[in-house]
Each structure stands twice: as structure tokens, then as C-alpha cells.
Amino acid sequence: MNQLFKALNDPTRREILNLLKEKDMTAGEIANAFNITKPSISHHLDILNQAGLVTSEKKGQFVIYALNTTVLDDLLSWIITLKE
């Protein structure tokens, strides 16, 4: 769960999640939405992937990233138990 909170702590990573909420995207498409280097975007995507917040699938020469809401469902369920 520490990886999850670390991933959510960064505003760039949260914005990447917002982009992926709309549609699955390649790293290049994601990078086009930001004014930072492609290696930096790849680093952010790696952290999101390690936390389970995104999935990646290779299609030809591209890697397609998608939002993984299962981890968020688990997080919300845990948060709700704290209130009980």
C-alpha cells in the first residue's frame, strides 16, 4: 500500500491517471499532454505500474497504458473500514 500512496502523492501522476480515465493511451500520447521529457513520463508510468494503478500491454511497437480501477476499489474499501 506504500507504493500506492507514493504513486498518488505526485501531481503529475495524478494527472496521468485523469488522462487514462478518459481513454487508454501510449506513453507518447501521455507525454504530449505535459511539458516534461519522455523519460520522465516513463518514470512516472513505471511508478504507477508498480503501484498497480495502471496496466500496460504491448501492441506492435507501442505500449498501451490503461487505468486499473481494481486497486482503487481496494483502497476505497480499506478507507471505508477505518470509518466503521
TrEMBL record:
One Pfam family from the UniProt entry?
A: HTH_5
UniProt-listed PROSITE patterns: HTH_ARSR_2
- Write the protein's name: Autorepressor SdpR family transcription factor
The family database entries (Gene3D superfamilies) matched by this protein are listed as: Winged helix-like DNA-binding domain superfamily/Winged helix DNA-binding domain (1.10.10.10)
Q: Where is the HTH arsR-type domain?
A: 1-84
Keywords tagged on the record: DNA-binding, Transcription, Transcription regulation
Q: Does the keyword Transcription apply?
A: yes
